[in-house]
Amino acid sequence: METITLTRPDDWHLHLRDDNALNAVVGHSAAQMGRAIIMPNLTPPVTTTEQALAYRERILQALPDGSAFEPLMTLYLTDTTPPEEIERALASGVIKAVKLYPAGATTNSDSGVTDLRHCDATIAAMAKAGMPLLVHGEVTDSDIDIFDREAVFIERVLKPLLERHPTLKLVCEHITTEQAAEFVTQAPDNVAATMTAHHLLFNRNQMLVGGIRPHYYCLPILKRERHRQALLKAATSGNAKFFLGTDSAPHAQGAKESSCGCAGAYTAPAAIELYATAFEQAGALEHLEAFASLNGPRFYGLSANADSITLERQAWQLPESYPYGDGQRIVPLQAGETLAWKQVN
Ligand SMILES: NC(=O)N[C@@H](CC(=O)O)C(=O)O
Ligand SMILES: [Zn+2]
Ligand SMILES: [Zn+2]
């Protein structure tokens, strides 16, 4: 039986939601990941240290008994986040980053930043403290095509941001284009990126050919094959700037299978298996451990996890759906499909 043993991976971009949804999904991540960077886009968003600490307690409460999963918290940046909030966050010891959502760019981003220049003093405090800024990198201008929003964001927002704050630790979250892979590759070592399994595995045809498949709809949206190839090349290159961030983003089945469906792919139940499939496809399974388990902690200044997980080559079928609380169901990406790898411990 062919197996892969890896230092236990971490998820550097995860949505866990709250209340019954949190209870329903947290176990999937905790079964695979040692730690995860928890996204703050709740309603209302997690904008203060106090709210982040309370949210962390709710996550710990929701964990299966005996789980050692560690939630690494983030703050949601707004136009008015004061520099002092960064000092409080740093002092908490459990808030590891600040998240930038351009206002209106994605799910629960209405309180996001309208103009990043409003945040310069706070970002200067972050650069000084070594607190990373995690960026949902898409412009929201109505005249910019949805497929171009990431590439335009790099030129209009990210490059000027780094000119103003050259030492800022910056993570381009869930990158989806060759332009983003190129930008991060060329940038200094304080700039890194997360990549999702779905952007490494699928292009936009998967979502749109032969019928519209709402479970493949996420933001940034799946792109052309050329971009997927560029991402896969960067992820499997051994370059330490690229690491695992699932962007597993749960929404109830009814909210996805709708005339106006929510953005977000639920990948947590088989995250590491999906990444293994992508790396195997690129003939680069030997680089999976660095991407999944080593590069992320190194960027965040943490040690790698001390334990490991094992995947076995074993065909198994992903369930059609899981319970999502309040009588609802949630459909994972690749529901009902046969996967080639299975985590066995
Ligand atoms: N990725 C998504 O499509 N959705 C995320 C938000 C995000 O990460 O942009 C969500 O919270 O649902
Ligand atoms: Zn995002
Ligand atoms: Zn996300």
What does this structure look like?
The protein is of the alpha/beta class and 345 residues long. 35% of the residues lie in helices and 17% in strands. It has twelve helices and 13 strands. The chain has helices at residues 19-32, 49-62, 83-92, 120-129, 149-164, 178-186, 197-201, 204-208, 225-235, 253-256, 271-281, 288-300; strands spanning 3-7, 11-14, 35-38, 70-76, 95-100, 133-135, 170-172, 191-195, 242-244, 308-317, 322-323, 329-330, 338-343. The mean pLDDT is 98. The protein binds N-carbamoyl-L-aspartate and zinc ion (ZN) (2 copies). One zinc ion binds at residues 13, 15, 39, 247, 249. The modification N6-carboxylysine is found at residue 99. Zn(2+) 1 binds at residues 13, 15, 99, 247. Residues 11-315 form the Amidohydrolase-related domain.
Which helices and strands, and how do they pair?
Elements: E1 3-7, E2 11-14, H1 19-32, E3 35-38, H2 49-62, E4 70-76, H3 83-92, E5 95-100, H4 120-129, E6 133-135, H5 149-164, E7 170-172, H6 178-186, E8 191-195, H7 197-201, H8 204-208, H9 225-235, E9 242-244, H10 253-256, H11 271-281, H12 288-300, E10 308-317, E11 322-323, E12 329-330, E13 338-343
Parallel strand pairs: 2-3, 3-4, 4-5, 5-6, 6-7, 7-8, 8-9
Antiparallel strand pairs: 1-10, 10-13, 11-12
Helix pairs in contact: 3-4, 6-9
